[in-house]
Amino acid sequence: MGESEDVGATSRQRAAVSATRRGFLLLGLALLVGCAKKTTHVMLPNPPWPALDLSPLPEPEPVPPRYEPPPNPVPLAPSSWPSTVLARSKWAQGEPVTTRMNRLSPVRYITVHHDGMHPFFDTDQRATAARIEAIRRAHRLRGWGDIGYHYVVDRAGRVWEGRSLRYQGAHVKNHNYANIGIVALGNFDRQQPSQAQLASMRQLVSLLMDRYHVPASQVSTHQEWAPTACPGRYRQQFMNTTRRQGRLG
Ligand SMILES: [Zn+2]
User: Fold this and answer.
1) Gap from CA of 230 to ligand 1 centroid (Å)
2) Residue 92: pLDDT above 70?
3) What is the 3-state secondary structure (H, E, C) of the chain?
4) Cα of 103 to ligand 1 centre, how many Å?
5) Cα of 84 from ligand 1 centre, angstroms
C-alpha cells in the first residue's frame, strides 16, 4: 500500500521534496566553495631544508705549483777533478730514471757508507763493476731512480761515479737533501777496509769539502745520522780515530 501513497502524493508534497533536494545541493556547493576558498588562504610551513642558494660558486683555491728546486749551482765538471774518477757508463747496465730523482742543490753534507753486502776483496775492474751494478739493481728494485750513492770507492782505491751530482742521492733516509753519499765496497763489520780504500776516501772527502765548502762538522758516517750498522764497526773506528787526530775520512 505504500506504493499507492507515493503514487498518490500531491504536487505540493513533490514540490517540497524537490525544494529540500535543491537545498542540500546548494549547501553542498556552498561547502565546496567554502573549502576551496579556505585552501587558498592556508600558509604552507617553511620547508625543513634551507633555501636554495643560487648565487655563483666561489672560485676554487688555486693549486700550489709543484715544488721546483732552484737551478743547480753545482759545477758538474770541475777542472781540478781527478781524472781517475771512472764514469758511470763504465759499469752501469741501465739508465737512471730522472723523473724519480730530485735535483741536488745545494751541497751541505757528505756521508760515508759501506755497501754492507758479503765481504768483498776483489780489486780488478770487472768484478768491481759487477758489484756496483748489483747495488744499482738493488736500489732500482726499491723504486729509486738510480744507485743511491754519488761516489763508489773500490778495494784498489779507484773512485767511480755513481748517481750524477746533478741529483739528490738516496742514502740516508729523510736526510738526502744537500747530502753527497760516498760508499766503499765491502762489509766493514766483517772485513777491514783496504789501505788504498781509506786513502782514496780521505782524498775524495777532502776534495768535496773544498769544492762545496762543507765544514768538517758536516762530514758524517751513516750511523751518525740514524740507527744503522753502516759503515761497519771497522770503518766507524777509523773515522773516530782520525777525527781525534784532527783529520777526516
Ligand atoms: Zn749507509
Assistant:
1) 5
2) yes
3) CHHHHHHCCCHHHHHHHHHHHHHHHHHHHHHHHHHHHHHHHCCCCCCCCCCCCCCCCCCCCCCCCCCCCCCCCCCCCCCCCCCCEECHHHCCCCCCCHHHCCECCCCCEEEEEECCCCCCCCCCHHHHHHHHHHHHHHHHHCCCCCCCCCEEECCCCCEEECCCCCECCCCCCCCCCCEEEEEECCCCCCCCCCHHHHHHHHHHHHHHHHHHCCCHHHEEEHHHCCCCCCCCHHHHHHHHHHHHCCCCC
4) 21
5) 24
Full-model pTM: 0.69
**Gap from CA of 224 to ligand 1 centroid (Å):** 10
How far does the centroid of ligand 1 lie from the alpha carbon of residue 86, in Å?
21
Cα of 5 vs centre of ligand 1, distance in Å, is 124
More confident residue, 181 or 38: 181
CB-based burial label for 239 (10 Å; 0-12, 13-18, 19+): buried
CB 182, CB 205: distance < 8 Å = yes
Which residue has cell 781525534? 244
In this structure, of 14-18, 71-75, 136-140, the range with the lowest mean pLDDT score is 71-75
Give the whole-angstrom CA distance, residue 249 versus residue 94: 31
Kindly give the distance from the C-alpha atom of residue 90 to the centroid of ligand 1, in angstroms, as a whole number.
23
